[in-house]
Amino acid sequence: MSERGALRTRLDLLAREIAKFGAVGAIGFVVNAIVFNICVHAFDLAVVRSGVIATVVAIATNYVGNRYWTYRHTEKNKRSRELMLFLLFSGIGLVIENGILALSHYGFGFTSTLADNVAKNVIGLGIGTVFRFWSYRTWVFKALPAREAVETAESFLEGPEAEAEAHSARPARST
């Protein structure tokens, strides 16, 4: 496979990953917004407390969606490590998201329902989502080592000569 073809394949895979992550995130966004507004308007809780509760519920929803759909092809043998990292990076995203809400509501005095929703569910969630996507794909949902599988598949598609070349190009394994 040419470098251009390999790059296109990697970009296609990244686009699919972003689309799946976005779909899971969209569901999480709806959950987050509904829970936030119920906490604020039905239970009359403080906005930051409501934001934290809503984010925690959305984090649980997003973990299930990302683990079993977006990143279902990744390692599954280290679930406790994966969950701890997921919660750590989700917690940082929670601080980003609700820190922006707190700054807007208490720091700048933008206290309307619209301002709170924009601060939390547009600006905070947007920045938090970029951070979460980067951290999840970098540290939480690590892909299985696939170099050998890709080389074998490519050599199979290119013919027997390329297969022999791919096998000879691999470093010897030590046991």
Automatic annotation (TrEMBL):
This is GtrA family protein. Residues 20-141 form the GtrA/DPMS transmembrane domain. It holds the Pfam family GtrA_DPMS_TM. It comes from the Bacteria. GO terms for biological process: polysaccharide biosynthetic process. One of its GO terms (cellular component) is plasma membrane. The keyword Membrane applies. Belongs to the GtrA family. It is a multi-pass membrane protein. Keywords: Membrane, Transmembrane, Transmembrane helix. It is found in: Membrane. The chain crosses the membrane at residues 21-40, 46-64, 85-106, 118-135.
